[in-house]
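Data availability (excerpt). All sequences and predicted token strings are deposited with the supplementary files. A representative entry, LysR family transcriptional regulator, is shown inline so that the format can be inspected without opening the archive.
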Amino acid sequence: MDLEAVDYFVKVADAQSLSRASKLFGVPKSSLSHKIRKLEDSLGVALFVRDGRDLLLSDAGAKFLEHAQRIKESCEGAQAAVAESRKEIAGTLTIASTGEFGTSFTSELLFAFRQKYPQVCVEVIFLSLGYFLAPERHQAFDGIFYWGEPASDDYIARKLGEASFALYASPRYLEKHGEPQTPAELNYHRAVAFREPNRLQAWRLENRGEIFEHSPSALCTANDYWMLKYFAVAGEGIVYLPAFFTEIECMNGDLLRVLPEWQSAPVSINLLYMRRRYVSRKFAAFVDFCLEYYRQRASYSTPRYCVEVVRPQGSQIRREES
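Structure token line:
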């Protein structure tokens, strides 16, 4: 049996579309189609049925998927066993993440990991929220960076750390509009807000047991944290973002904390992997490295990534330290 065809079948079953699988895994759509057609010919059955733009598993395809996943895991186990016999950490890791982690969270960790284990090839897949909320599609990933607790017992969650949301604005905005002194004053300020599927994200803040929830009214909204950060740095308004996502901008003075004593309740940052999945030596090394990295992050000289500084030509506005 063509093992590459089996691998492509699992990828398409996971993405439920040739086009999505092509984009997610970087495989030409024509190659996916050809391999799956050859696999169906060799098996004598149709593995997929079309439902609009989606490809859904047929009854035969669903049965074959169970075996295909075991075949992939057995192949990975064989590769890992050979690597272990050479005392090497090698192979390919496919890691998934949502956009808010992106270059601000995962890239520095993966860069540091590659420095320690240069024989490991790392494939990073960024998932949309809708895709990410479909656990049945996650079979193709070794690990998933996830903010919050997993909704399914099928996952093992290894906690890397915690993060909270807080309020930020550029010095330019605060010099022009003033700085709120209490949460109630947020009603008089411009907001840059995250758009959830049915509404704007609420700003939930806590301070010494006191809880305040603000429903922002914003002229600038997006369902992408990078765009929100861009507009906040550019002076469009106050933004509600994870602290780790604004670390470098605050260090450089391009964003400042607003109401610094207020922040959201902490949320766990977890590395998830399937409970029933074979844990290869390379992934076990990756899990251990992730845990160590966020315990001792300050000791690593890993390059940080920040949004390009946004300011008018020829000006460099900084808020004077009090």
